[in-house]
Amino acid sequence: MRSSAGSAQTMHDKIWNSHRIVSRDDGQDLLFIDRHFIHDITAPAFEILRERGLKPRAPHRIFGTADHYVPTHSRDMAAVNHPERRTMIEALTRDAAESGIQIFGLGDPRQGIVHVIGPEQGLSLPGMTIVCADSHTSTHGALGALAFGIGATEVGHVLATQSLWQRKPRSMRISIDGTLGAGVTAKDIILTIIATIGVAGATGHVIEYAGSAIRGLSMEGRLTVCNMSIEAGGRAGMIAPDDTTFAYLKDRPYAPKGEDWERAVAGWRELASDLDAVFDREITIDAASIAPMVTWGTTPEDATPITGVVPDPDAIADPGRREGMARALAYMGLVPGTALEEVPIDRVFIGSCTNGRIEDLRSAAAVVKGRKVAGRIEAWVVPGSQQIKAQAEAEGLDRIFKAAGFDWRFAGCSMCLAANGDTVAPGQRCASTSNRNFVGRQGPRARTHLMSPAMAAAAAVTGHLTDVRRLMEGA
Ligand SMILES: CC(C)[C@H](C(=O)O)[C@@H](O)C(=O)O
Ligand code: SF4
Asked: Model pTM?
Protein backbone atom coordinates (compact mmCIF):
# COMPACT_ATOMS: atom_id res chain seq x y z
CA MET A 1 0.00 0.00 0.00
CA ARG A 2 1.31 3.44 -0.91
CA SER A 3 1.31 6.06 1.85
CA SER A 4 -1.01 5.79 4.81
CA ALA A 5 -2.58 2.73 6.33
CA GLY A 6 -6.34 2.55 6.80
CA SER A 7 -8.19 5.80 6.45
CA ALA A 8 -5.46 7.97 7.96
CA GLN A 9 -4.15 10.37 5.38
CA THR A 10 -1.08 12.51 4.93
CA MET A 11 -1.49 16.11 3.78
CA HIS A 12 -0.15 14.95 0.42
CA ASP A 13 -2.93 12.30 0.24
CA LYS A 14 -5.59 14.85 1.15
CA ILE A 15 -4.60 17.39 -1.48
CA TRP A 16 -4.08 14.69 -4.09
CA ASN A 17 -7.43 13.02 -3.46
CA SER A 18 -9.38 16.27 -3.47
CA HIS A 19 -7.92 17.15 -6.90
CA ARG A 20 -8.12 13.78 -8.59
CA ILE A 21 -10.56 13.91 -11.51
CA VAL A 22 -10.06 10.40 -12.83
CA SER A 23 -7.52 7.55 -12.60
CA ARG A 24 -6.03 5.59 -15.48
CA ASP A 25 -5.20 1.88 -15.51
CA ASP A 26 -1.49 2.62 -15.84
CA GLY A 27 -1.55 4.26 -12.41
CA GLN A 28 -1.69 7.88 -13.53
CA ASP A 29 -4.23 10.29 -12.08
CA LEU A 30 -5.64 13.36 -13.77
CA LEU A 31 -5.30 16.21 -11.28
CA PHE A 32 -7.18 19.49 -11.32
CA ILE A 33 -4.71 22.38 -11.14
CA ASP A 34 -5.73 25.38 -9.03
CA ARG A 35 -2.90 27.72 -9.85
CA HIS A 36 -0.51 27.95 -12.76
CA PHE A 37 2.41 30.38 -12.70
CA ILE A 38 4.24 31.41 -15.82
CA HIS A 39 7.44 33.39 -16.30
CA ASP A 40 9.73 34.65 -19.03
CA ILE A 41 10.77 31.09 -19.91
CA THR A 42 7.25 29.79 -20.60
CA ALA A 43 7.10 30.96 -24.24
CA PRO A 44 7.75 27.49 -25.79
CA ALA A 45 4.58 26.13 -24.16
CA PHE A 46 2.47 28.89 -25.69
CA GLU A 47 4.02 27.96 -29.05
CA ILE A 48 2.80 24.38 -28.55
CA LEU A 49 -0.66 25.72 -27.82
CA ARG A 50 -0.75 28.01 -30.84
CA GLU A 51 0.44 25.22 -33.15
CA ARG A 52 -2.55 23.16 -32.04
CA GLY A 53 -4.99 26.03 -32.34
CA LEU A 54 -5.77 25.97 -28.60
CA LYS A 55 -6.27 28.71 -26.04
CA PRO A 56 -5.72 28.72 -22.25
CA ARG A 57 -8.75 27.10 -20.64
CA ALA A 58 -8.75 29.08 -17.36
CA PRO A 59 -6.72 32.29 -17.77
CA HIS A 60 -7.97 33.56 -14.38
CA ARG A 61 -6.01 30.75 -12.69
CA ILE A 62 -2.77 31.75 -14.40
CA PHE A 63 -0.42 34.50 -13.23
CA GLY A 64 2.92 35.52 -14.64
CA THR A 65 6.00 37.55 -13.88
CA ALA A 66 9.23 38.44 -15.63
CA ASP A 67 12.10 37.22 -13.50
CA HIS A 68 14.87 35.21 -15.19
CA TYR A 69 15.81 37.65 -17.94
CA VAL A 70 15.12 41.03 -16.36
CA PRO A 71 17.96 43.48 -15.70
CA THR A 72 18.57 44.34 -12.06
CA HIS A 73 20.34 47.68 -12.64
CA SER A 74 17.35 49.25 -14.37
CA ARG A 75 13.60 48.82 -14.86
CA ASP A 76 13.78 50.13 -18.38
CA MET A 77 13.13 47.74 -21.26
CA ALA A 78 15.69 49.81 -23.18
CA ALA A 79 18.32 48.39 -20.80
CA VAL A 80 17.63 44.92 -22.21
CA ASN A 81 19.92 45.14 -25.21
CA HIS A 82 20.41 41.39 -25.53
CA PRO A 83 18.03 40.18 -28.30
CA GLU A 84 17.21 36.75 -26.80
CA ARG A 85 16.40 38.17 -23.36
CA ARG A 86 14.31 40.89 -24.90
CA THR A 87 12.39 38.33 -26.96
CA MET A 88 11.64 36.20 -23.89
CA ILE A 89 10.36 39.12 -21.81
CA GLU A 90 8.27 40.40 -24.72
CA ALA A 91 6.89 36.92 -25.42
CA LEU A 92 5.52 36.73 -21.88
CA THR A 93 3.81 40.08 -22.26
CA ARG A 94 2.36 39.13 -25.64
CA ASP A 95 1.24 35.60 -24.69
CA ALA A 96 -0.42 36.91 -21.53
CA ALA A 97 -2.17 39.80 -23.27
CA GLU A 98 -3.50 37.50 -26.01
CA SER A 99 -4.99 35.13 -23.42
CA GLY A 100 -6.17 37.58 -20.77
CA ILE A 101 -3.60 36.41 -18.23
CA GLN A 102 -2.51 38.79 -15.47
CA ILE A 103 1.23 39.37 -15.45
CA PHE A 104 3.52 41.43 -13.29
CA GLY A 105 6.00 42.59 -15.88
CA LEU A 106 9.12 44.71 -15.79
CA GLY A 107 8.11 48.03 -14.25
CA ASP A 108 5.12 46.60 -12.32
CA PRO A 109 5.50 47.25 -8.56
CA ARG A 110 4.43 43.62 -7.96
CA GLN A 111 7.11 42.14 -10.23
CA GLY A 112 9.56 39.68 -8.73
CA ILE A 113 10.75 36.09 -8.77
CA VAL A 114 7.76 33.84 -9.38
CA HIS A 115 8.31 31.83 -6.20
CA VAL A 116 8.49 34.99 -4.15
CA ILE A 117 5.49 36.81 -5.57
CA GLY A 118 3.08 33.83 -5.54
CA PRO A 119 3.00 33.67 -1.73
CA GLU A 120 3.46 37.43 -1.40
CA GLN A 121 0.37 38.23 -3.47
CA GLY A 122 -1.70 35.54 -1.74
CA LEU A 123 -1.92 33.63 -5.02
CA SER A 124 -0.42 30.49 -3.48
CA LEU A 125 -2.78 29.18 -0.82
CA PRO A 126 -3.04 26.11 1.43
CA GLY A 127 -4.62 23.04 -0.14
CA MET A 128 -3.95 24.15 -3.70
CA THR A 129 -2.30 22.27 -6.51
CA ILE A 130 0.25 24.67 -7.98
CA VAL A 131 2.43 24.20 -11.04
CA CYS A 132 4.99 26.25 -12.95
CA ALA A 133 7.61 25.42 -15.56
CA ASP A 134 10.28 25.79 -12.92
CA SER A 135 11.87 23.28 -10.61
CA HIS A 136 11.70 25.53 -7.55
CA THR A 137 7.92 25.56 -7.61
CA SER A 138 8.34 23.31 -4.56
CA THR A 139 8.73 26.61 -2.66
CA HIS A 140 4.96 27.24 -2.58
CA GLY A 141 4.44 23.99 -0.65
CA ALA A 142 5.54 25.90 2.44
CA LEU A 143 1.98 27.25 2.60
CA GLY A 144 0.52 23.75 2.74
CA ALA A 145 0.06 23.29 -1.00
CA LEU A 146 1.07 20.56 -3.42
CA ALA A 147 3.39 22.52 -5.70
CA PHE A 148 5.80 21.15 -8.27
CA GLY A 149 7.69 22.03 -11.42
CA ILE A 150 6.61 20.78 -14.83
CA GLY A 151 8.10 20.71 -18.34
CA ALA A 152 7.00 22.61 -21.46
CA THR A 153 4.74 19.82 -22.80
CA GLU A 154 3.00 19.55 -19.44
CA VAL A 155 2.61 23.33 -19.34
CA GLY A 156 0.87 23.07 -22.71
CA HIS A 157 -1.48 20.44 -21.25
CA VAL A 158 -2.23 22.53 -18.18
CA LEU A 159 -2.81 25.64 -20.28
CA ALA A 160 -5.24 23.79 -22.52
CA THR A 161 -7.10 21.75 -19.87
CA GLN A 162 -6.25 23.17 -16.39
CA SER A 163 -5.44 19.59 -15.42
CA LEU A 164 -2.41 17.33 -15.48
CA TRP A 165 -1.70 13.58 -15.59
CA GLN A 166 0.61 12.54 -12.77
CA ARG A 167 1.71 9.38 -11.03
CA LYS A 168 1.39 9.88 -7.30
CA PRO A 169 4.80 10.23 -5.66
CA ARG A 170 5.60 8.39 -2.43
CA SER A 171 5.59 10.28 0.84
CA MET A 172 8.48 11.12 3.12
CA ARG A 173 8.47 13.02 6.38
CA ILE A 174 11.55 14.88 7.55
CA SER A 175 11.20 15.96 11.16
CA ILE A 176 13.48 18.57 12.70
CA ASP A 177 12.89 18.60 16.42
CA GLY A 178 14.37 20.79 19.11
CA THR A 179 15.80 24.29 19.16
CA LEU A 180 18.09 25.86 16.59
CA GLY A 181 21.28 27.42 17.91
CA ALA A 182 22.10 31.13 17.53
CA GLY A 183 23.03 32.05 13.97
CA VAL A 184 21.41 28.90 12.56
CA THR A 185 18.69 29.52 9.97
CA ALA A 186 16.26 27.76 7.65
CA LYS A 187 19.00 27.64 5.00
CA ASP A 188 21.22 25.71 7.38
CA ILE A 189 18.38 23.27 8.05
CA ILE A 190 17.87 22.49 4.38
CA LEU A 191 21.60 22.33 3.58
CA THR A 192 21.99 19.90 6.49
CA ILE A 193 19.11 17.79 5.19
CA ILE A 194 20.62 17.65 1.70
CA ALA A 195 24.11 16.90 3.05
CA THR A 196 22.53 14.07 5.08
CA ILE A 197 20.28 12.40 2.49
CA GLY A 198 22.07 13.49 -0.69
CA VAL A 199 20.84 15.15 -3.88
CA ALA A 200 18.87 12.04 -4.82
CA GLY A 201 17.78 11.31 -1.24
CA ALA A 202 14.13 12.19 -1.79
CA THR A 203 13.77 11.06 -5.40
CA GLY A 204 10.21 9.98 -6.18
CA HIS A 205 8.87 11.47 -2.93
CA VAL A 206 6.89 14.42 -1.74
CA ILE A 207 8.58 15.66 1.42
CA GLU A 208 6.58 16.88 4.37
CA TYR A 209 8.74 18.90 6.77
CA ALA A 210 7.60 18.58 10.36
CA GLY A 211 8.81 18.86 13.93
CA SER A 212 9.08 21.68 16.44
CA ALA A 213 11.97 23.46 14.69
CA ILE A 214 9.97 23.62 11.43
CA ARG A 215 6.84 24.78 13.23
CA GLY A 216 8.99 27.44 14.90
CA LEU A 217 10.12 28.86 11.55
CA SER A 218 8.62 32.02 10.10
CA MET A 219 6.83 31.76 6.76
CA GLU A 220 9.97 33.08 5.06
CA GLY A 221 12.06 30.35 6.65
CA ARG A 222 9.57 27.67 5.61
CA LEU A 223 9.66 28.94 2.04
CA THR A 224 13.47 28.64 2.10
CA VAL A 225 13.28 25.03 3.28
CA CYS A 226 10.64 23.96 0.74
CA ASN A 227 12.44 25.82 -2.05
CA MET A 228 15.37 23.41 -1.93
CA SER A 229 13.29 20.20 -1.77
CA ILE A 230 14.18 19.75 -5.42
CA GLU A 231 17.87 19.88 -4.50
CA ALA A 232 17.27 16.77 -2.40
CA GLY A 233 15.56 15.13 -5.39
CA GLY A 234 12.05 15.62 -3.98
CA ARG A 235 9.09 16.07 -6.29
CA ALA A 236 7.67 18.63 -3.87
CA GLY A 237 8.05 19.87 -0.32
CA MET A 238 5.27 20.90 2.04
CA ILE A 239 4.59 22.12 5.54
CA ALA A 240 1.23 21.89 7.30
CA PRO A 241 -0.50 25.27 7.39
CA ASP A 242 -0.94 26.76 10.87
CA ASP A 243 -1.38 30.14 12.54
CA THR A 244 1.98 31.31 11.14
CA THR A 245 0.70 30.54 7.63
CA PHE A 246 -2.65 32.23 8.17
CA ALA A 247 -1.08 35.34 9.72
CA TYR A 248 1.23 35.59 6.72
CA LEU A 249 -1.60 35.24 4.19
CA LYS A 250 -4.25 37.40 5.82
CA ASP A 251 -5.03 40.55 3.82
CA ARG A 252 -2.67 39.62 0.96
CA PRO A 253 -4.10 41.03 -2.30
CA TYR A 254 -5.44 37.74 -3.73
CA ALA A 255 -6.17 35.94 -0.43
CA PRO A 256 -9.85 35.40 0.41
CA LYS A 257 -11.48 38.21 2.40
CA GLY A 258 -14.15 38.50 5.11
CA GLU A 259 -16.37 35.47 5.50
CA ASP A 260 -14.57 33.71 2.67
CA TRP A 261 -11.38 34.04 4.68
CA GLU A 262 -12.94 32.51 7.81
CA ARG A 263 -14.33 29.63 5.79
CA ALA A 264 -11.04 29.09 4.02
CA VAL A 265 -9.04 29.00 7.26
CA ALA A 266 -11.45 26.47 8.76
CA GLY A 267 -10.85 24.22 5.74
CA TRP A 268 -7.10 24.76 5.78
CA ARG A 269 -6.94 23.61 9.40
CA GLU A 270 -8.09 20.17 8.20
CA LEU A 271 -5.15 19.77 5.80
CA ALA A 272 -2.48 18.62 8.26
CA SER A 273 -1.52 14.96 8.08
CA ASP A 274 -3.60 12.79 10.37
CA LEU A 275 -1.76 11.88 13.55
CA ASP A 276 -1.70 8.20 12.64
CA ALA A 277 -0.83 8.77 8.97
CA VAL A 278 1.98 6.53 7.78
CA PHE A 279 4.76 7.84 5.54
CA ASP A 280 6.76 5.68 3.16
CA ARG A 281 9.93 7.08 4.72
CA GLU A 282 10.74 8.96 7.91
CA ILE A 283 13.89 10.92 8.72
CA THR A 284 14.61 12.78 11.94
CA ILE A 285 17.28 15.37 12.60
CA ASP A 286 18.04 17.05 15.92
CA ALA A 287 17.83 20.84 15.49
CA ALA A 288 20.52 21.40 18.10
CA SER A 289 23.01 19.46 15.95
CA ILE A 290 22.69 21.92 13.03
CA ALA A 291 25.46 24.48 12.52
CA PRO A 292 25.78 27.36 10.03
CA MET A 293 26.56 25.59 6.75
CA VAL A 294 28.54 26.31 3.58
CA THR A 295 29.04 24.31 0.42
CA TRP A 296 32.55 23.51 -0.76
CA GLY A 297 31.75 21.64 -3.99
CA THR A 298 29.53 21.67 -7.05
CA THR A 299 26.31 20.08 -5.80
CA PRO A 300 24.20 21.23 -2.85
CA GLU A 301 25.00 18.02 -0.95
CA ASP A 302 28.64 19.13 -0.80
CA ALA A 303 27.79 21.08 2.34
CA THR A 304 29.44 21.08 5.72
CA PRO A 305 29.45 23.17 8.91
CA ILE A 306 31.54 26.35 8.55
CA THR A 307 33.66 25.14 11.46
CA GLY A 308 35.03 22.36 9.25
CA VAL A 309 37.75 21.99 6.64
CA VAL A 310 37.78 21.31 2.89
CA PRO A 311 37.33 17.52 2.73
CA ASP A 312 40.01 15.17 1.45
CA PRO A 313 39.05 12.93 -1.50
CA ASP A 314 41.77 10.46 -0.48
CA ALA A 315 39.80 9.70 2.66
CA ILE A 316 36.83 8.50 0.59
CA ALA A 317 36.58 4.76 -0.06
CA ASP A 318 34.08 4.85 -2.92
CA PRO A 319 36.07 5.47 -6.14
CA GLY A 320 33.22 7.28 -7.93
CA ARG A 321 32.64 9.65 -5.03
CA ARG A 322 36.39 10.16 -4.57
CA GLU A 323 36.85 11.16 -8.20
CA GLY A 324 33.78 13.41 -8.16
CA MET A 325 35.04 15.15 -5.06
CA ALA A 326 38.51 15.69 -6.55
CA ARG A 327 36.93 17.15 -9.69
CA ALA A 328 34.71 19.45 -7.64
CA LEU A 329 37.65 20.67 -5.56
CA ALA A 330 39.73 21.33 -8.68
CA TYR A 331 36.87 23.38 -10.15
CA MET A 332 36.41 25.21 -6.87
CA GLY A 333 40.16 25.85 -6.52
CA LEU A 334 40.23 24.39 -3.01
CA VAL A 335 42.95 22.40 -1.24
CA PRO A 336 41.89 19.55 1.09
CA GLY A 337 42.41 20.32 4.76
CA THR A 338 42.06 24.10 4.38
CA ALA A 339 39.91 25.60 7.11
CA LEU A 340 36.70 26.78 5.41
CA GLU A 341 36.96 30.07 7.29
CA GLU A 342 40.25 30.76 5.50
CA VAL A 343 38.71 30.65 2.02
CA PRO A 344 38.75 34.19 0.54
CA ILE A 345 35.87 35.40 -1.60
CA ASP A 346 35.46 37.92 -4.45
CA ARG A 347 31.72 38.33 -4.75
CA VAL A 348 28.61 38.25 -2.58
CA PHE A 349 25.09 37.62 -3.84
CA ILE A 350 22.19 38.05 -1.44
CA GLY A 351 18.97 37.24 -3.23
CA SER A 352 17.11 34.48 -5.19
CA CYS A 353 13.85 32.62 -4.56
CA THR A 354 15.63 30.80 -1.74
CA ASN A 355 16.75 33.78 0.30
CA GLY A 356 15.59 37.06 -1.25
CA ARG A 357 12.73 37.75 1.16
CA ILE A 358 12.36 40.53 3.70
CA GLU A 359 13.49 38.45 6.65
CA ASP A 360 16.58 37.37 4.71
CA LEU A 361 17.46 40.99 4.01
CA ARG A 362 16.87 41.90 7.66
CA SER A 363 19.15 39.15 8.92
CA ALA A 364 21.90 40.12 6.46
CA ALA A 365 21.52 43.81 7.34
CA ALA A 366 21.82 43.00 11.05
CA VAL A 367 25.29 41.57 10.37
CA VAL A 368 26.31 44.33 7.93
CA LYS A 369 25.16 47.24 10.09
CA GLY A 370 28.08 49.50 11.09
CA ARG A 371 30.54 47.42 9.07
CA LYS A 372 32.07 47.73 5.58
CA VAL A 373 32.37 45.35 2.68
CA ALA A 374 35.96 44.08 2.82
CA GLY A 375 38.65 44.97 0.29
CA ARG A 376 37.66 44.84 -3.36
CA ILE A 377 34.74 42.50 -2.89
CA GLU A 378 31.73 43.24 -5.06
CA ALA A 379 28.65 42.61 -2.95
CA TRP A 380 25.07 42.73 -4.20
CA VAL A 381 21.63 42.62 -2.67
CA VAL A 382 18.91 41.69 -5.15
CA PRO A 383 15.49 41.66 -3.44
CA GLY A 384 13.23 38.78 -4.49
CA SER A 385 10.45 41.17 -5.46
CA GLN A 386 9.85 44.85 -5.93
CA GLN A 387 7.48 44.75 -2.94
CA ILE A 388 10.29 43.41 -0.78
CA LYS A 389 12.59 46.09 -2.15
CA ALA A 390 10.05 48.77 -1.20
CA GLN A 391 9.54 47.29 2.26
CA ALA A 392 13.28 47.03 2.86
CA GLU A 393 13.64 50.67 1.83
CA ALA A 394 10.84 51.68 4.19
CA GLU A 395 12.76 49.92 6.98
CA GLY A 396 16.05 51.60 6.02
CA LEU A 397 17.79 48.32 5.12
CA ASP A 398 18.93 49.69 1.76
CA ARG A 399 20.80 52.47 3.57
CA ILE A 400 22.59 49.96 5.77
CA PHE A 401 23.68 47.94 2.75
CA LYS A 402 24.68 50.95 0.68
CA ALA A 403 26.62 52.55 3.54
CA ALA A 404 28.60 49.31 3.80
CA GLY A 405 29.40 49.35 0.08
CA PHE A 406 26.77 46.92 -1.22
CA ASP A 407 25.04 47.38 -4.56
CA TRP A 408 21.26 47.67 -4.04
CA ARG A 409 19.48 46.25 -7.12
CA PHE A 410 16.03 45.77 -8.61
CA ALA A 411 14.21 42.42 -8.23
CA GLY A 412 14.88 39.35 -10.37
CA CYS A 413 16.67 36.00 -10.48
CA SER A 414 19.89 37.82 -11.30
CA MET A 415 23.13 36.11 -10.32
CA CYS A 416 21.40 32.95 -9.11
CA LEU A 417 21.38 31.68 -12.69
CA ALA A 418 23.10 34.57 -14.51
CA ALA A 419 20.57 34.29 -17.36
CA ASN A 420 20.07 38.06 -17.38
CA GLY A 421 23.78 38.80 -17.72
CA ASP A 422 24.49 39.33 -13.98
CA THR A 423 27.47 37.01 -13.77
CA VAL A 424 30.32 36.09 -11.48
CA ALA A 425 33.53 36.40 -13.55
CA PRO A 426 35.59 33.30 -14.47
CA GLY A 427 37.59 32.06 -11.51
CA GLN A 428 35.86 34.38 -9.06
CA ARG A 429 34.46 32.94 -5.84
CA CYS A 430 31.00 33.97 -4.72
CA ALA A 431 29.30 33.69 -1.35
CA SER A 432 25.73 33.17 -2.51
CA THR A 433 22.36 32.75 -0.83
CA SER A 434 20.93 30.93 -3.87
CA ASN A 435 20.18 27.21 -4.17
CA ARG A 436 22.51 25.76 -6.80
CA ASN A 437 26.30 25.65 -6.90
CA PHE A 438 26.56 23.72 -10.18
CA VAL A 439 29.54 24.15 -12.50
CA GLY A 440 29.04 27.40 -14.43
CA ARG A 441 25.79 28.24 -12.65
CA GLN A 442 26.73 31.86 -11.91
CA GLY A 443 28.76 32.24 -15.09
CA PRO A 444 31.49 30.30 -16.91
CA ARG A 445 34.08 29.01 -14.39
CA ALA A 446 32.36 30.88 -11.57
CA ARG A 447 32.75 29.30 -8.12
CA THR A 448 29.72 29.29 -5.85
CA HIS A 449 29.49 28.71 -2.12
CA LEU A 450 25.91 28.39 -0.89
CA MET A 451 25.01 29.73 2.55
CA SER A 452 22.45 31.70 4.53
CA PRO A 453 21.98 35.48 4.15
CA ALA A 454 23.62 36.11 7.54
CA MET A 455 26.60 33.96 6.52
CA ALA A 456 26.89 35.74 3.15
CA ALA A 457 26.81 39.08 4.96
CA ALA A 458 29.54 37.87 7.31
CA ALA A 459 31.68 36.83 4.33
CA ALA A 460 31.12 40.24 2.72
CA VAL A 461 32.46 42.16 5.69
CA THR A 462 35.41 39.88 6.50
CA GLY A 463 36.43 38.98 2.94
CA HIS A 464 36.41 35.24 3.57
CA LEU A 465 33.97 32.51 4.51
CA THR A 466 33.13 33.25 8.13
CA ASP A 467 31.20 31.68 10.97
CA VAL A 468 28.55 34.38 11.44
CA ARG A 469 28.40 33.56 15.14
CA ARG A 470 31.73 35.40 15.53
CA LEU A 471 30.10 38.63 14.42
CA MET A 472 26.93 38.33 16.41
CA GLU A 473 26.27 40.58 19.36
CA GLY A 474 27.66 39.21 22.57
CA ALA A 475 29.89 36.74 20.70
C1 LIG B 1 15.23 28.27 -15.98
C2 LIG B 1 14.31 27.50 -15.05
C3 LIG B 1 13.41 26.66 -15.84
C4 LIG B 1 15.14 26.84 -13.97
C5 LIG B 1 14.40 25.83 -13.10
O6 LIG B 1 13.64 25.00 -13.56
O7 LIG B 1 14.59 25.82 -11.92
C8 LIG B 1 15.73 27.93 -13.12
O9 LIG B 1 14.77 28.66 -12.44
C10 LIG B 1 16.74 27.37 -12.17
O11 LIG B 1 16.71 27.71 -11.01
O12 LIG B 1 17.59 26.60 -12.62
S1 SF4 C 1 15.98 32.72 -8.36
FE2 SF4 C 1 17.28 31.11 -9.18
S3 SF4 C 1 16.39 29.20 -8.48
FE4 SF4 C 1 14.85 30.79 -8.24
S5 SF4 C 1 13.63 30.68 -10.08
FE6 SF4 C 1 15.21 32.22 -10.40
S7 SF4 C 1 16.89 31.11 -11.40
FE8 SF4 C 1 15.52 29.57 -10.50
From this structure: 0.98
